[in-house]
DNA sequence: AGTCCGTGAGTAAGCGCTTTCTCGCCGGGT
DNA sequence: ACCCGGCGAGAAAGCGCTTACTCACGGACT
């Protein structure tokens, strides 16, 4: 086993120069058919695989993109990642996956790692609105696409979902179901998505002409199942339960659902629950969960396409801000019993 | 914005040679303190970031590892990936994520991509027992760690869980609960994990002294929720339901649970269900799911450590085959009612 | 027959970095 | 006062590849 076959070995075997081999690989049209086939045969016989880092060094263009997400354990990001991976691998690009775990320090470390790998673009869901990392990347000539985080910044693209609208959808629904004392479980302060969903929720209350105190906020330290469980326990410890909870994402909602059902609370009769993201598991929960659906896969694909397009023609690239519209999926967890019910006896 | 600051720019600013800058970065001990600090100051002032591909070209050692999984949408792999990412980033390595989607063709493409990126190691859960890709990688000097797939191959490491034992645990439990007509929903043929779990299930039946026809097999085309739903519908279409189902993973089990509960089947009274993987959502399901737990995070960390260790000292590296032992987590979905029950009236 | 130009291959200069070798310089031993 | 050894910095050679640029060769003109 020779450690690595280089373009030079191929050139020797095909009895051409290295330049010609390179041309066969990159601009096949410029090489005469007979020569080209001889080279291809040699590549095949030797099992040659191009050395991408070397190519990148010389040409300056990488075929690698970075993806920094808040939590790979969250199916929302998983589905986004799948979309990214799909679009990237179709374009022959590799995806370097980084998990910031909602930590600014880890995010910073990953961004530096990606910069040192000289990726040509980074798709990132920033922890907080840490514009500092983004600026730093752009200063080094790395294009950035903001994922699931809208921005008006003129020198980068973004792909997001209208979180404010999503929050509004959720609350409008709960109010229509007759809920009167609603708690919103939000994420850590500074988490943009959760804050926007909260704003949307308040919008809905205003539009419905209700008093703002219909909605109370309960912050959770992170958007995962464990924090949802804890939030549930906090609610259960109260003298009176609210009649509805809107969670900033489905993981919180599933945890909360589990805690409350276990304690004998009836969902939705005693407590309506609405989540956010509509992950696959929402439908399979103890009580099928009402949720706000986002086009996760589409978000990933779009973001990857944008960054690849930008890298291929940096000059005429126009930075775009794509905003998808969320959709409410009503399931059992929020269908309140009506005063008069029809149905089987 | 200068496209990229090189080691040369740093050298000029610190008034030393490029060799010295390189020494500061790689063997700081060899440089006099005063010089070193001058260089570090220059690096800081210019915001220099090492060009990893260039370093790799010269030194021949990459700081990148590849991870090829069957399905990023499956929380099992997600948790493994998190372990990998964690261990890798602690060691300053980047992880290139690839999703084979259980397709041999996509796997092949990803393996070639990783080879062209000259990663120093690949962690892979092979589709089928596609040893061909592995041999191909080893021929190119790339170390391979088999993930969730045991092997006796002497020239590579593997990290796996004893799937046969896991299957045995599941079936022993179901038999102890008094189940008599058990269906196992397996994966596509050739999927090693599912086949081993099935073998273990048969072991349990033999050990319990039961007739082999207690267990029937229902293959599913893939290990996801959708296929679980379909399997559930297939069972519901039968004249008589089995009294227990053992699913090759939790996604199948959650799908099946959803389909059966929706159809009014009582779980576990009419039908006991056992899954595999014990993903976080298993506990939060409509009926909390009994499952076989695997140390997912540990698997990922271990695999990444092995490949990084091998790359750092290829000579004295001993290939290891790590096998974890699974553990049964009993929840409500498989607790059969006893003839005599105690409880509230 | 001489000139021109298009085609197709070779030549060579690096991309940014590591690493070996060389060499200047200073302190200590004789 | 001289020599030698060791420390520390510089010079330089590539790693595998891309990409001008160069140049030889014919065929088609004038």
Concise overview:
Two copies of one chain form a homodimer. With 345 residues, chain A is α/β, with parallel strands linked by helices.
Estimate the mean pLDDT confidence of chain A.
91
Which pair has the most extensive contact? Answer: A-B, 61 and 61 residues
Structural class of chain A: alpha/beta
Q: Oligomeric state of the chains?
A: homodimer
Structural account:
With 345 residues, chain A is of the alpha/beta class. Chain A is built from 12 helices and 12 strands. Chain A has helices at residues 7-14, 18-26, 33-46, 52-59, 75-90, 104-116, 131-139, 163-176, 192-207, 225-236, 250-262, 296-312, and strands at 64-69, 94-99, 121-124, 143-147, 157-161, 182-186, 215-219, 244-247, 272-274, 291-293, 321-324, 327-329. In chain A, the strands form 3 sheets. Chain A has a 6-stranded parallel β-sheet, with helices on both faces. In chain A, strands 7-6-8-9 form a 4-stranded parallel β-sheet. In chain A, helix 7 links the parallel strand 3 and strand 4 (143-147). The longest helix of chain A has 17 residues, at 296-312. Mean pLDDT of chain A is 91; it is low at 340-345. Chain A binds a DNA duplex (30 and 30 nucleotides) through helix 2 and helix 4.
Task: Give the key terms.
homodimer; alpha/beta; DNA-binding; 12 helices; 15% strand; 4-stranded parallel β-sheet; 6-stranded parallel β-sheet; 43% helix; 12 strands; 345 residues
Layout of helices and strands:
The structure is a homodimer of 345-residue chains.
Chain A: H1 7-14, H2 18-26, H3 33-46, H4 52-59, E1 64-69, H5 75-90, E2 94-99, H6 104-116, E3 121-124, H7 131-139, E4 143-147, E5 157-161, H8 163-176, E6 182-186, H9 192-207, E7 215-219, H10 225-236, E8 244-247, H11 250-262, E9 272-274, E10 291-293, H12 296-312, E11 321-324, E12 327-329
Parallel strand pairs in A: 1-2, 1-3, 3-4, 4-5, 5-11, 6-7, 6-8, 8-9
Antiparallel strand pairs in A: 10-12
Chain A binds a DNA duplex (30 and 30 nucleotides) through helix 2 and helix 4.
């Amino acid at each position: 086993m020779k450690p690595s076959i280089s373009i030079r070995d191929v050139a020797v075997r095909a009895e051409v120069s290295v330049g010609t081999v390179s041309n066969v690989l990159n601009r096949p049209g410029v090489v005469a058919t007979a020569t080209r086939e001889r080279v291809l045969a040699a590549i095949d016989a030797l099992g040659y695989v191009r050395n991408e880092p070397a190519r990148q060094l010389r040409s300056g263009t990488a075929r690698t993109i970075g993806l920094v997400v808040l939590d790979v354990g969250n199916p929302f990001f998983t589905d986004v990642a799948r979309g990214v991976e799909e679009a990237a691998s179709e374009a022959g690009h590799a995806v370097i996956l980084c998990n910031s775990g909602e930590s600014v320090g880890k995010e910073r470390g990953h961004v530096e790692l990606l910069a040192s790998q000289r990726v040509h673009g980074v798709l990132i869901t920033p922890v907080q609105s840490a514009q500092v990392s983004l600026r730093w990347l752009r200063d080094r000539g790395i294009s950035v696409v903001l994922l699931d985080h809208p921005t008006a910044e003129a020198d980068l693209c973004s792909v997001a979902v209208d979180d404010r609208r999503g929050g509004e959808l959720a609350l409008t629904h709960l109010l229509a179901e007759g809920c009167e004392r609603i708690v919103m479980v939000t994420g850590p302060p500074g988490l943009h998505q959760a804050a926007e969903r909260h704003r949307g929720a308040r919008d809905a209350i205003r539009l419905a002409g209700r008093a703002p105190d219909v909605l109370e906020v309960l912050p959770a330290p992170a958007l995962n199942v464990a924090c949802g469980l804890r939030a549930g326990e906090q609610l259960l410890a109260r003298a009176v339960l609210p009649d509805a909870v809107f969670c900033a994402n489905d993981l919180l909602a599933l945890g909360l659902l589990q805690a409350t059902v276990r304690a004998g609370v009836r969902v939705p009769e005693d407590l309506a629950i609405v989540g956010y993201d509509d992950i696959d598991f929402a439908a399979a929960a103890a009580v099928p969960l009402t949720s706000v659906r986002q086009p996760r896969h589409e978000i990933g694909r779009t973001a990857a396409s944008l960054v690849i397009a930008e890298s291929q023609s940096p000059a005429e690239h126009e930075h775009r801000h794509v905003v998808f519209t969320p959709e409410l999926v009503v399931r059992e967890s929020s269908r309140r019993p009506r005063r008069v019910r029809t149905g089987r006896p």
